[in-house]
């Protein structure tokens, strides 16, 4: 079933994100993680796109096929376009068709100084238009409750997002955030802008200090006072920080569900312990 159709059948939709493993131990972790996630019967699992060079050694589609065939869960495949030509994108779309995968999260992708960007696609909206012309795919997009780090301001950011939705995006997944009020304000803004597509709230449990620093740098997520206090108190106690981070994420999800959000999208980091704790915390709420 295509992703947008799931929102017509139920609310809230529940989904998870994983990424292709690179090492033997990571492969074992992903199997354990998928086994736990499948117990909660998610509506779909998104698979991130391998970074950098050629798509021919990318394990994204292989993992998506595994999710569909072995676990019976619909996959949502990430596609980035900045470093790929139209010809290469056609090859990837054909690969998805051959695998009977019809749901794509269309992304520009991060700039990489080590890989020269190609000129066929400048923005995610360019990729969305290309996919729409190529075949009958369900297209999802990313959104940023606190504004994309490269946008001048929130007005420009909402304008770019509107262009992406007008190009054919049928469902949005938000970047992570730590203050639910930020997400609720963002919901109001996109409604005012005339975007009437389902929006999933993206939640990442923070379980170590390095992760916090990385996320704030990469996506510009602000840290509310309550969150900062918790992290500062337990940053030197690994076990306590893990518990505190998981509790904060679960509390976020409970509040989002109480506000009747369209869906919850959880970034699992391929960690089976994180997956199990989240599933145990919300299994009676979904």
TrEMBL record:
<dbReference type="InterPro" id="IPR004620">
    <property type="entry name" value="MTHF_reductase_bac"/>
</dbReference>
<keyword id="KW-0486">Methionine biosynthesis</keyword>
<dbReference type="GO" id="GO:0009086">
    <property type="term" value="P:methionine biosynthetic process"/>
</dbReference>
<dbReference type="InterPro" id="IPR003171">
    <property type="entry name" value="Mehydrof_redctse-like"/>
</dbReference>
<dbReference type="InterPro" id="IPR029041">
    <property type="entry name" value="FAD-linked_oxidoreductase-like"/>
</dbReference>
<keyword id="KW-0285">Flavoprotein</keyword>
<keyword id="KW-0520">NAD</keyword>
<keyword id="KW-0274">FAD</keyword>
<protein>
    <recommendedName>
        <fullName>Methylenetetrahydrofolate reductase</fullName>
        <ecNumber>1.5.1.54</ecNumber>
    </recommendedName>
</protein>
<keyword id="KW-0560">Oxidoreductase</keyword>
<dbReference type="Pfam" id="PF02219">
    <property type="entry name" value="MTHFR"/>
</dbReference>
<dbReference type="GO" id="GO:0035999">
    <property type="term" value="P:tetrahydrofolate interconversion"/>
</dbReference>
<keyword id="KW-0028">Amino-acid biosynthesis</keyword>
<dbReference type="GO" id="GO:0005829">
    <property type="term" value="C:cytosol"/>
</dbReference>
<comment type="pathway">
    <text>Amino-acid biosynthesis; L-methionine biosynthesis via de novo pathway.</text>
</comment>
<comment type="similarity">
    <text>Belongs to the methylenetetrahydrofolate reductase family.</text>
</comment>
<dbReference type="GO" id="GO:0071949">
    <property type="term" value="F:FAD binding"/>
</dbReference>
<dbReference type="GO" id="GO:0106312">
    <property type="term" value="F:methylenetetrahydrofolate reductase (NADH) activity"/>
</dbReference>
<comment type="pathway">
    <text>One-carbon metabolism; tetrahydrofolate interconversion.</text>
</comment>
